[in-house]
Model the fold of this input.
Amino acid sequence: MPRYHNIDGNRVQYTLEEEAARDAEEKAWVDGAVARAAERVQAERRAAYQTESDTLFFEEQANEIAAGTWAAKRAEIKARFPKD
Done:
């Protein structure tokens, strides 16, 4: 199915080169979906670690909270933001 530009209210069909370039862009977008999803999960985890678990590490090291609290929180964050 041909694709069209909208130029000044007129539909103009893509050239063969434009079609090929657009197809390549679409393929690159689809091929990058897994990488984008992994980056999103990593960013979400990083933010959760900073706000929810980083202080627990130091509190645990100072014996202010029970041993294993920090690891449990990290496991909970990983479960909340799975890589798969």
Observations:
- The longest strand covers residues 4-7.
- The chain has a mean pLDDT of 93.
- The helical segments are 16-31, 33-61, 69-80.
- The CA atoms of residues 17 and 69 lie 58 Å apart.
